[in-house]
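dumping these here so i dont lose them again. two proteins, back to back, each one seq then structure tokens. dont judge the mess
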Amino acid sequence: MTEPTSAVVLFSHGSRDPLWRAPIEAVAARIKADHPQRPVVCAYLELSEPPLAQAVAGLVTAGATHVTVVPMFLGTGKHAREDLPVLVQELRDNHPQVAIHVQPAIGEDPRMTALMANIACERPAA
């Protein structure tokens, strides 16, 4: 029996400005460096490519059997609370053989809160 392939999707809002995507793509690059065996892609709600459905379809085609969607939002606003559950249900309907897990908004993780607080309190560089 083959081992399940777990993949990660970093899901964010999107923007027409390509520089806006740089931090999300940096997280993906860090995952690829630290966990080279784990497929990771970025996906966007709007204004950027690829959309969530396309990103997950690509992972499934590549053999993913478990997909974790990480909402790259500071909080659980309308997109995470209303839009994402609809999109995830469509994913589950379209890929019933794949286990799809959605993490809470990344900004609500206590480790992220602590990191942001530490950064905010750092002394400015001389």
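---- next one ----
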Amino acid sequence: MSAIARAPREGRRIRVLVIDDSALIRQLMTELLSADPGIVVVGTAADPFIAREKIKQLRPDVLTLDVEMPRMDGLTFLQNLMRLRPMPVVMVSSLTQAGAGVTLDALSLGAVDFVTKPSIDVARGMAEYASVLQQKVRAAASARVARVETRPLTVESISAMSYRTTDRLLAIGASTGGTEAIREVLSAMPADAPAIVIAQHIPAQFSTAFAERLDRHSRMTVMEAQDGQQIMPGHAYIAPGGRHLRVQRSGARWHCRLGDDNPVSGHRPSVDVLFESVAEHAGRNASAALLTGMGDDGARGLLKLREAGAATIAQDQATSVIWGMPGAAVARGAAMEVAPLGEIAPRLLATTTGTN
């Protein structure tokens, strides 16, 4: 191995390229780094393919790099970069917690250092980390970086790339009898429970009052979901009547997306629509419960969740007002377990702590 990267000349500002798929993080990183008179952010990139071209054009001294990104994950990009064009890299991710397998892999692949991205109140959290971030970028700029031979990544880091984030997400679907069933589940949740997204078949004129009623009976903050709203722990988001609710991922955070597209499984909001979006964007970081209801909406989505690695639960027949939806899920093999209504909340919580 031979040292390749050279420190910028004394007196010249350190040129930084910020690589992160979240537009918010790219903006914050640019602002925080630019506040240091010795640093200039020469560009940003939303994924490694864009970054590759900007490295050629802009010739930065240091890269900041996220782990979770579309098209190519950060560790694969880092591995290719350090093999072909070694340069100082500071990892900035929700996954880079000290001692975590993904951090050790990043360092072994040639990253100089890491900063843990705040997972709650990102804007304020990043501002608190400004001095740390600036210090690590300055240190990285003077680091001697060598070409690193290709080596296999660990099983833990590969799993981390599969849409893992630092938070858990719970999803609940219901129809007939569901308004009271959901109330019972939420009333058993602690104030700091993982975020919950909920699709209940309900007319548009009733969903606001439904959310308000649930909020009164829960230690969590319960509200009707709004389009683009960030999904936060300790909060539950109800799909508005007449609109689909989907979960969308941006960086390491999830957001609510509302849609007026056609009904699915005869319903809008549809449980299948919600569950399938959770399967796509949260995968194994999710747990879901399908409660009482007529028909089979949610059965297909619950199966997709199970196939994506999520924990899945169906309410049992004895405590369901109508065992149509959960029964259809059980028939499809979508439910990992079947539980009475009173056990749904503790079972969901158990899946988030690894005690199930």
